[in-house]
Write a structure and sequence with these properties.
Elements (H helix, E strand, L loop, with lengths): L22 E5 L3 H12 L3 E5 L15 E3 L9 H23 L4 E8 L4 H12 L9 E3 L1 H8 L7 E10 L1 H9 L3 E3 L6 E5 L2 E5 L3
Helix pairs in contact: 1-5
The chain binds flavin-adenine dinucleotide.
Flavin-adenine dinucleotide (FAD) binds next to helix 1 and strand 3.
Protein backbone atom coordinates (compact mmCIF):
# COMPACT_ATOMS: atom_id res chain seq x y z
CA UNK A 1 0.00 0.00 0.00
CA UNK A 2 1.46 3.42 -0.95
CA UNK A 3 1.64 6.53 1.27
CA UNK A 4 -1.10 8.21 -0.81
CA UNK A 5 -3.53 5.52 0.41
CA UNK A 6 -3.09 6.84 3.94
CA UNK A 7 -4.28 10.42 3.26
CA UNK A 8 -7.64 10.69 5.02
CA UNK A 9 -8.30 14.44 5.01
CA UNK A 10 -8.44 16.91 2.10
CA UNK A 11 -4.95 18.36 1.47
CA UNK A 12 -6.28 21.44 -0.31
CA UNK A 13 -8.15 24.55 0.73
CA UNK A 14 -11.27 25.72 -1.11
CA UNK A 15 -10.31 29.02 -2.77
CA UNK A 16 -11.92 32.26 -1.64
CA UNK A 17 -14.63 33.55 -4.02
CA UNK A 18 -13.28 35.77 -6.80
CA UNK A 19 -14.03 39.50 -6.72
CA UNK A 20 -16.89 40.48 -9.04
CA UNK A 21 -15.70 41.06 -12.63
CA UNK A 22 -12.29 39.47 -12.02
CA UNK A 23 -10.40 37.87 -14.88
CA UNK A 24 -8.28 34.82 -14.11
CA UNK A 25 -5.01 34.38 -16.00
CA UNK A 26 -3.84 30.84 -16.67
CA UNK A 27 -0.17 30.54 -17.63
CA UNK A 28 0.59 27.55 -19.82
CA UNK A 29 -1.53 26.03 -22.56
CA UNK A 30 -0.75 22.36 -22.03
CA UNK A 31 -3.43 19.88 -20.98
CA UNK A 32 -3.18 21.13 -17.37
CA UNK A 33 -3.71 24.82 -18.16
CA UNK A 34 -6.33 24.15 -20.82
CA UNK A 35 -8.37 21.92 -18.51
CA UNK A 36 -8.12 24.46 -15.66
CA UNK A 37 -9.19 27.27 -17.99
CA UNK A 38 -12.06 25.17 -19.37
CA UNK A 39 -13.30 24.37 -15.84
CA UNK A 40 -13.22 28.08 -14.91
CA UNK A 41 -14.94 29.06 -18.15
CA UNK A 42 -17.70 26.52 -17.56
CA UNK A 43 -18.61 28.11 -14.23
CA UNK A 44 -18.80 31.54 -15.84
CA UNK A 45 -15.39 32.92 -14.82
CA UNK A 46 -13.68 35.26 -17.23
CA UNK A 47 -10.40 33.55 -18.09
CA UNK A 48 -7.46 34.31 -20.38
CA UNK A 49 -4.75 31.76 -21.07
CA UNK A 50 -1.15 32.62 -22.03
CA UNK A 51 1.43 30.37 -23.67
CA UNK A 52 4.94 31.22 -24.72
CA UNK A 53 4.71 28.99 -27.83
CA UNK A 54 2.90 29.72 -31.11
CA UNK A 55 0.20 27.10 -30.50
CA UNK A 56 -1.27 25.48 -27.39
CA UNK A 57 -0.27 21.94 -26.48
CA UNK A 58 3.40 22.32 -27.41
CA UNK A 59 5.05 21.37 -24.09
CA UNK A 60 4.97 17.91 -22.50
CA UNK A 61 1.43 17.68 -23.89
CA UNK A 62 2.90 17.45 -27.41
CA UNK A 63 3.55 13.76 -26.85
CA UNK A 64 1.60 12.14 -29.73
CA UNK A 65 -0.47 9.83 -27.55
CA UNK A 66 -1.18 9.41 -23.85
CA UNK A 67 -2.65 6.54 -21.90
CA UNK A 68 -5.57 7.57 -19.70
CA UNK A 69 -6.37 5.07 -16.96
CA UNK A 70 -7.44 5.26 -13.30
CA UNK A 71 -4.86 5.33 -10.56
CA UNK A 72 -5.09 2.08 -8.57
CA UNK A 73 -5.78 2.81 -4.91
CA UNK A 74 -6.54 -0.02 -2.55
CA UNK A 75 -8.07 1.83 0.37
CA UNK A 76 -11.30 3.83 -0.03
CA UNK A 77 -9.71 7.05 1.31
CA UNK A 78 -10.47 10.68 0.48
CA UNK A 79 -7.51 10.84 -1.93
CA UNK A 80 -8.66 7.63 -3.64
CA UNK A 81 -12.18 9.05 -4.10
CA UNK A 82 -10.67 12.32 -5.43
CA UNK A 83 -8.68 10.44 -8.07
CA UNK A 84 -11.62 8.17 -9.01
CA UNK A 85 -13.83 11.25 -9.45
CA UNK A 86 -11.12 13.05 -11.47
CA UNK A 87 -10.88 9.99 -13.74
CA UNK A 88 -14.66 9.87 -14.30
CA UNK A 89 -14.81 13.62 -15.00
CA UNK A 90 -11.85 13.48 -17.40
CA UNK A 91 -13.42 10.62 -19.36
CA UNK A 92 -16.76 12.49 -19.48
CA UNK A 93 -14.99 15.62 -20.79
CA UNK A 94 -13.07 13.73 -23.50
CA UNK A 95 -16.28 11.94 -24.56
CA UNK A 96 -18.22 15.22 -24.68
CA UNK A 97 -15.53 16.83 -26.85
CA UNK A 98 -15.48 13.73 -29.09
CA UNK A 99 -19.23 14.09 -29.65
CA UNK A 100 -18.82 17.76 -30.53
CA UNK A 101 -15.94 17.44 -33.01
CA UNK A 102 -13.90 14.35 -33.86
CA UNK A 103 -12.92 11.53 -31.53
CA UNK A 104 -10.20 12.37 -29.01
CA UNK A 105 -9.52 8.63 -28.68
CA UNK A 106 -6.95 6.67 -30.69
CA UNK A 107 -7.98 3.44 -28.97
CA UNK A 108 -10.37 2.52 -26.18
CA UNK A 109 -9.95 0.09 -23.26
CA UNK A 110 -6.91 -0.51 -21.01
CA UNK A 111 -5.92 -3.83 -19.43
CA UNK A 112 -3.67 -3.34 -16.38
CA UNK A 113 -1.86 -6.55 -15.50
CA UNK A 114 0.67 -5.23 -12.96
CA UNK A 115 4.46 -5.49 -13.24
CA UNK A 116 4.63 -8.29 -10.66
CA UNK A 117 2.41 -10.22 -8.22
CA UNK A 118 2.06 -7.27 -5.82
CA UNK A 119 1.17 -4.92 -8.71
CA UNK A 120 -1.46 -7.39 -9.91
CA UNK A 121 -2.82 -7.76 -6.35
CA UNK A 122 -3.09 -3.98 -6.10
CA UNK A 123 -5.09 -3.76 -9.35
CA UNK A 124 -7.37 -6.60 -8.21
CA UNK A 125 -7.96 -4.88 -4.85
CA UNK A 126 -8.67 -1.58 -6.64
CA UNK A 127 -11.35 -3.23 -8.79
CA UNK A 128 -12.85 -4.82 -5.65
CA UNK A 129 -12.78 -1.52 -3.69
CA UNK A 130 -15.91 -0.19 -5.38
CA UNK A 131 -14.20 3.16 -6.10
CA UNK A 132 -15.28 2.73 -9.72
CA UNK A 133 -18.60 1.25 -10.82
CA UNK A 134 -18.61 -2.27 -12.26
CA UNK A 135 -19.14 -0.82 -15.75
CA UNK A 136 -15.84 1.06 -15.37
CA UNK A 137 -13.58 -1.58 -13.78
CA UNK A 138 -13.64 -5.37 -14.00
CA UNK A 139 -11.19 -8.06 -12.93
CA UNK A 140 -10.77 -10.51 -15.83
CA UNK A 141 -9.28 -13.99 -15.84
CA UNK A 142 -6.65 -14.90 -18.46
CA UNK A 143 -9.18 -16.00 -21.09
CA UNK A 144 -11.34 -12.91 -20.73
CA UNK A 145 -8.28 -10.61 -20.59
CA UNK A 146 -7.13 -12.07 -23.91
CA UNK A 147 -10.62 -11.64 -25.36
CA UNK A 148 -10.80 -8.00 -24.19
CA UNK A 149 -7.54 -6.91 -25.84
CA UNK A 150 -7.69 -9.23 -28.86
CA UNK A 151 -4.27 -10.82 -28.26
CA UNK A 152 -3.18 -13.71 -26.07
CA UNK A 153 -2.10 -12.52 -22.59
CA UNK A 154 -0.71 -14.78 -19.87
CA UNK A 155 -2.05 -13.06 -16.75
CA UNK A 156 -5.38 -11.90 -15.38
CA UNK A 157 -5.86 -8.16 -15.27
CA UNK A 158 -7.96 -5.11 -14.42
CA UNK A 159 -10.02 -4.07 -17.43
CA UNK A 160 -11.00 -0.42 -17.75
CA UNK A 161 -13.29 -0.27 -20.81
CA UNK A 162 -13.65 3.54 -20.88
CA UNK A 163 -9.91 4.21 -20.39
CA UNK A 164 -7.80 4.47 -23.52
CA UNK A 165 -5.17 6.14 -25.60
CA UNK A 166 -5.77 9.83 -26.22
CA UNK A 167 -4.71 12.06 -29.12
CA UNK A 168 -3.29 14.87 -26.98
CA UNK A 169 -2.80 17.33 -29.86
CA UNK A 170 -6.44 16.98 -30.89
CA UNK A 171 -7.53 17.36 -27.27
CA UNK A 172 -5.51 20.56 -26.76
CA UNK A 173 -6.91 22.13 -29.95
CA UNK A 174 -10.49 21.13 -29.04
CA UNK A 175 -10.13 22.69 -25.58
CA UNK A 176 -8.43 25.85 -26.88
CA UNK A 177 -11.04 26.63 -29.51
CA UNK A 178 -13.61 28.03 -27.07
CA UNK A 179 -11.11 29.87 -24.84
CA UNK A 180 -9.37 33.25 -24.95
CA UNK A 181 -5.83 32.00 -25.71
CA UNK A 182 -2.88 34.36 -26.17
CA UNK A 183 -0.11 32.37 -27.82
CA UNK A 184 3.47 33.57 -28.38
CA UNK A 185 3.27 35.33 -25.00
CA UNK A 186 5.91 34.23 -22.50
CA UNK A 187 5.16 35.42 -18.97
CA UNK A 188 8.42 36.32 -17.25
CA UNK A 189 7.28 38.01 -14.03
CA UNK A 190 4.20 38.17 -11.82
CA UNK A 191 3.69 41.32 -9.77
CA UNK A 192 1.15 41.78 -7.02
CA UNK A 193 -0.39 45.20 -7.48
CA UNK A 194 -3.17 46.47 -5.17
CA UNK A 195 -4.83 43.07 -4.70
CA UNK A 196 -4.46 42.19 -8.40
CA UNK A 197 -1.72 40.45 -10.34
CA UNK A 198 0.17 41.96 -13.24
CA UNK A 199 1.69 39.58 -15.77
CA UNK A 200 4.84 40.86 -17.40
CA UNK A 201 6.47 39.59 -20.58
CA UNK A 202 10.17 39.67 -21.34
CA UNK A 203 10.81 43.02 -22.92
C1 LIG B 1 7.05 11.11 -23.89
C2 LIG B 1 5.94 11.39 -22.90
C3 LIG B 1 4.94 10.43 -22.72
C4 LIG B 1 3.90 10.66 -21.80
N1 LIG B 1 2.93 9.73 -21.67
C5 LIG B 1 1.88 9.96 -20.84
C6 LIG B 1 0.80 9.03 -20.75
O1 LIG B 1 0.80 8.01 -21.40
N2 LIG B 1 -0.24 9.34 -19.91
C7 LIG B 1 -0.25 10.49 -19.17
O2 LIG B 1 -1.22 10.73 -18.43
N3 LIG B 1 0.77 11.38 -19.22
C8 LIG B 1 1.82 11.12 -20.05
N4 LIG B 1 2.84 12.02 -20.12
C9 LIG B 1 2.82 13.16 -19.22
C10 LIG B 1 1.89 14.23 -19.76
O3 LIG B 1 2.14 14.45 -21.13
C11 LIG B 1 2.15 15.50 -18.96
O4 LIG B 1 1.97 15.23 -17.58
C12 LIG B 1 1.18 16.60 -19.35
O5 LIG B 1 1.19 16.82 -20.74
C13 LIG B 1 1.59 17.86 -18.61
O6 LIG B 1 0.72 18.87 -19.00
P1 LIG B 1 0.92 20.34 -18.46
O7 LIG B 1 -0.18 21.17 -19.02
O8 LIG B 1 1.10 20.30 -16.98
O9 LIG B 1 2.37 20.78 -19.02
P2 LIG B 1 2.82 21.11 -20.53
O10 LIG B 1 2.08 20.30 -21.53
O11 LIG B 1 4.31 21.02 -20.55
O12 LIG B 1 2.34 22.60 -20.71
C14 LIG B 1 3.03 23.68 -20.12
C15 LIG B 1 2.83 24.85 -21.06
O13 LIG B 1 3.27 26.03 -20.39
C16 LIG B 1 3.90 26.85 -21.34
N5 LIG B 1 4.77 27.74 -20.56
C17 LIG B 1 5.79 27.39 -19.75
N6 LIG B 1 6.33 28.46 -19.17
C18 LIG B 1 5.63 29.54 -19.64
C19 LIG B 1 5.72 30.96 -19.41
N7 LIG B 1 6.63 31.46 -18.59
N8 LIG B 1 4.84 31.76 -20.05
C20 LIG B 1 3.89 31.26 -20.88
N9 LIG B 1 3.79 29.92 -21.14
C21 LIG B 1 4.65 29.09 -20.53
C22 LIG B 1 4.65 25.88 -22.24
O14 LIG B 1 4.91 26.45 -23.52
C23 LIG B 1 3.64 24.73 -22.34
O15 LIG B 1 2.77 24.83 -23.45
C24 LIG B 1 3.88 11.86 -21.05
C25 LIG B 1 4.89 12.82 -21.24
C26 LIG B 1 5.88 12.61 -22.16
C27 LIG B 1 6.94 13.68 -22.38
Amino acid sequence: MGAMDEIEAPWFRIADPLPKGATVAVIGGGIGGLCAATALDRVGTSVRLYDRLKTPGGGASATPAAIVQPRAFVKNSVVARFHADAYRRAIALYDRLSDLTESMWLARGVLAVGRDDSGAARHEAFVGSGLLAEDDAQWLDVANSSRAVGVSVCAPGAWFPRAGCLDTGRLCMALAVSLDVQCGTPIKTLKSDGGKWRLLGGD
